[in-house]
Give the backbone structure.
Amino acid sequence: MSKKHSICSDKETKPELCSSCGLCMCSAWPTKESIQSCVFTTGWLGKHEQNFFGRERSLTDSDEIVFGISKDRFCARMKNPAPGVQFTGIITSLAKKAFATEMVEAVLTLHRGKEDYFFPEPVLARSIEDIAAGCGSKPVLAQTLISIEKAYQAGIKKLLVIGAPCHIHNVRSFQERYSYLKNIDIYVVGIPCTDNVKPENFRYILSRISRSHETVRHYEFMQDFTVHLYHENGDLERVPFFSLPPELTSAGVLTSCCRSCFDYMNSLADITVGYLGAPLDIEKMNQWVLIRTEKGEELCSLIADDMETFPEVTSGDRKDSVQYYGQQLLARMQPGEEDEVRQSMSLEDGHDFAEYLYSTGPRDAEFARYAVDTHLIRNYYYVKQNFPQRLKTLVPRHAYKILEDYELTP
Ligand SMILES: Cc1cc2nc3c(=O)[nH]c(=O)nc-3n(C[C@H](O)[C@H](O)[C@H](O)COP(=O)(O)OP(=O)(O)OC[C@H]3O[C@@H](n4cnc5c(N)ncnc54)[C@H](O)[C@@H]3O)c2cc1C
Ligand code: SF4
Ligand code: SF4
């Protein structure tokens, strides 16, 4: 039996921050050992990156600083996307093929919860049907790692883990530190991840974004500075970021753990599969792939014939926009400015402004660099202001290089 939320009662060792990754809810080992492996205890990247790749990312390679260590990056899409996938289903296709070819015996993934279409139900999938049912985003904190206990107890030897950067940090660190998972050969497919929310806040947030939150079946923050929401009848609703209610961007409504996150790109995965560095095309739903290791290459080769691939493209220059963002952020943090209520734009003005930024601002891979830099800057100052005692542990060294590049004071 798993000890659901046992962490909440473990006040002595509980970190101040927690993304409910699920590791502490396993009962096959002491909670203390899970917490000792937790990224909010050990910090982001740094020695984890060193242990995994044999080195930390270079501070002189401008792409490695932002995207992490990789062997290859490219854009791709499945030629025949299955229904229900988030973009074209590269992740689900990889997982199904890895299982079908016996590269792995099981897959750690998430089904849709019964309570809410967007809530996750962690599963250890051991059939093609169960793997396929894991497709699509559940855009809330997910207890994915609770199922690793089942893999351990079942004596699984080859396991595919699909997860967000906090899941992947924690599973890598736990496997390194303790012997429980030492006989499991772990393959990792990572999603980029930022600004996730607690399940209990999710419906409030969605109802403040969409004109009809009950009928939304797919939603994503896209490269054209708008949220794309697809409804069950196929209608696309677009809401500019600048027209979102201002309270939705506060850490109170979002989460303090995601504001203290410094690995948007899931740098410890064998392969990261996202969309934000690919050209936006709402018909094709292009994706963006970062291969980081030989295992990542092996996984990708399984579906090579089923994908269309094309080289990464990039245009524009993010520097001025990021610098402006950083300066505005610092100005808002000045004493007396924090409580000032910011107004959001009307939908019409928001669309005009989003259109202007999309047509003149950073595009494709440069948009991804813009997104990584701005989130990292925002999160750095969030931790500095709210958890100053955790700054040294949590923040990886490349964050300081990025602050320096934009002439921002650490
Ligand atoms: C909260 C959140 C924020 C994201 N932000 C970005 C972003 O800013 N930029 C970007 O490029 N991509 C982001 N993604 C990833 C993106 O939404 C797609 O999952 C990814 O592009 C893969 O698409 P696909 O069609 O290959 O996935 P599919 O084949 O549909 O598979 C999706 C996989 O993601 C897993 N998954 C779903 N929800 C979660 C979750 N909450 N935690 C862990 N795993 C989950 C599922 O188990 C499934 O295996 C985010 C995902 C989430 C959940
Ligand atoms: S993030 Fe995971 S490992 Fe860390 S405290 Fe929360 S449940 Fe435990
Ligand atoms: S933003 Fe970071 S801490 Fe939050 S769910 Fe995603 S990976 Fe975990």
